[in-house]
Amino acid sequence: MSSDARSVLVVGGGTAGNGLAVLLRKAGIDVDLVEIRPDWNVSGSGITTQGNALRVLREIGVWEEAEKHGFGFDTLGLTAPDGTVLHVQPDHHTGGPDFPAVVGMQRADLQRILAEAVRGSGARVRLGTTVQSLEQDGTGVDVGFSDGTTGRYDLVVAADGLHSATRALIGISERPEPVGMGIWRVSAPRPKSVERTDLTYGGPCYIAGYTPTGQNTLYAYLVEPKRDRASLDPDTHADEMRRLAEGYGGAWNEIRESITDPKKVNYTWFTRHLVEGSWHRGRVVLVGDAAHSCPPTLAQGAAMSLEDALVLAELLAAHDVWDDDLLTAYHERRVPRVRMVVDGSVQICRWQLDGVRDADVPGLIGRTMTALTELP
Predict the structure, then answer these.
(1) What was the pLDDT predicted at 5?
(2) Does residue 81 register a pLDDT over 70?
(3) Which of 55, 197, 202, 346 lies in the 20 to 30 Å Cα band around 355?
(4) DSSP of 309-358
(5) pTM of the model
């Protein structure tokens, strides 16, 4: 591709797609973004953003706004099921000293902030729209959209998430696979005592935890063996999460009382996948959850997606020719770091599922986070 024809279609307006769209516009590249959800997916419970994710938010230009809406902290607590604090340790500053170790946020707030940045960047946005067909030749990609329109682009980026339809369109067969755990999530009022993430390993669940996401909110979660989701009545979600939470004390006593609305409780499985081999086919390339996913045991899913966007944008902005070699270089730069996170996240799950009591979880986390302090 030549430097006088630089247009990108971003498919998917989640964390990776929004971040990429803004970064490409900063580099003067024309961007169209399509998102299948008409509400731009401004929903969800909470999200844990570690320093290496915050570092990318600064490059996008939204760090200050994210900081205002989130809750930053620098320590991690380990508690017994009854709420007794067993240990408090400094958390890893994977973004360096300029950022908190962690900022908890309401996922909807982060999505709204990124969406506003996309609008402000000058990218053309179409909601309630997605890709239905892709036809490539030596100079570009002809795209057919669900609203009956067509377009031609120098590059198409599949940022359409875990179950990416674009990934399937280009013949990549990898799909997320369950690892054996399910997670209950809820947003709730923040007890005044909660000023960091506290984790409990044991009790009725594998993990019970919570993360402050603002001055008045937190994100609480319970991890258990996966269940048949079809057998779970959504109307009973609050009752079921509250029942599981009865096995935990401390701040959970207050959190549990607020779990009353089943529409605010989400249940899903932990999954993992990592597309092996190249992350592109011709002029269509994968970023974020379309390329990889992992359980949140290292809280690095959003960070890996944002780093993908940063690296791809840097490479596209720095080169006049967008070809197979460039997209291969993107994959080669990202895959060792992503594989480390995916494998480490899954390993923590395996140890818990297998009941390994002497597993070196702190060591694995320490090695991974130390590596992630390096720039992607």
Answers:
(1) 54
(2) yes
(3) 197
(4) HHHHHHHHHH-S---HHHHHHHHHHHHHHHHHHHHHHHHHHHHHHTT-TT
(5) 0.96
